[in-house]
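ok new one. same drill as before - structure tokens go in, u give me an amino acid for every spot. 250 of them this time. try not to just spam alanines like last time pls lmao
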């Protein structure tokens, strides 16, 4: 059997998706193991989950850096023009200063995050309820030299519908009759990268927002380990389709 895929995980909160991945690893449903858990928030339940399973963890708070970025030195290897030109978060007509400020502050935080993660060699990084958007600075550092992208994210909606911070709330508010969740590779935009897997649920008359969150989360706990398992088994490849890069599953 191939060596287990080394999975690094980043969280911001409760970590139920992290738990689902840990459980799938421990039950050997997937050929993987979680090698670290990082959080941008101290004291969250996901960190206690890591400790319970003997997984090393760290906290790297974005908050102080994003509040006062001028107090921090930019990473020496940051090519800000390159990062700003690659990002898809700000349109070309928005003020270039905004994109530069955004990317430089993110890069400061991301360099510190990379320094923590470098202590634990990993094959893929899973964002499991990590409520921060990566800039091209960190994405390139993690992906370069590899055939496949190496950062996965789970999103609580059927992308490309409802990217952003509240996928379930947006699905409910829109009056959708079907909702779902998506695992995708992270690219230079927000929730816009190539889709690896999706699961859908029916929204019944009378379902509340809480009901659909519950239905969605239960599907997330199946979907995320499945997608990590596909990566671990070498079943994912990238292909061009029109202007897009898509994931093919063998
Ligand atoms: C999950 O619903 C996940 O899809 C969502 O946060 C929740 C985390 O729950 N992620 C995002 O919205 C990312 N933009 P968890 O901490 O219990 O896994």
């Amino acid at each position: 059997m191939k060596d287990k895929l080394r999975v690094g995980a980043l969280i911001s909160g409760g970590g139920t998706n992290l738990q689902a991945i840990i459980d799938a690893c421990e039950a050997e449903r997937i050929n993987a193991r979680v090698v670290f858990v990082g959080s941008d928030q101290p004291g969250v339940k996901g960190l206690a989950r890591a400790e319970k399973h003997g997984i090393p963890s760290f906290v790297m708070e974005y908050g102080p850096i994003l509040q006062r970025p001028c107090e921090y030195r930019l990473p020496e290897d940051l090519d800000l023009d390159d990062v700003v030109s690659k990002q898809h978060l700000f349109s070309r007509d928005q003020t270039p200063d905004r994109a530069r400020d955004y990317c430089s502050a993110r890069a400061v935080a991301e360099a510190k995050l990379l320094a923590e993660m470098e202590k634990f060699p990993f094959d893929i990084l899973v964002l499991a309820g990590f409520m921060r958007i990566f800039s091209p600075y960190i994405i390139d550092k993690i992906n370069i030299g590899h055939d496949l992208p190496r950062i996965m994210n789970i999103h609580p909606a059927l992308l490309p519908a409802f990217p952003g911070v509240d996928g379930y709330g947006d699905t409910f508010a829109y009056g959708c009759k079907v909702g779902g969740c998506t695992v995708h590779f992270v690219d230079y935009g927000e929730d816009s990268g190539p889709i690896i897997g999706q699961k859908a649920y029916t929204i019944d008359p009378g379902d509340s927002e809480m009901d659909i969150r519950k239905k969605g989360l239960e599907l997330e706990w199946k979907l995320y380990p499945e997608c990590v398992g596909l990566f671990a088994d070498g079943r994912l490849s990238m292909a061009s389709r029109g202007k897009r890069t898509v994931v093919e599953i063998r």
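The radius of gyration is 18 Å. and btw The pocket of glycinamide ribonucleotide is lined by residues 11, 13-17, 46, 128-129, 131, 154-156, 167, 217, 220 (CB under 6 Å).
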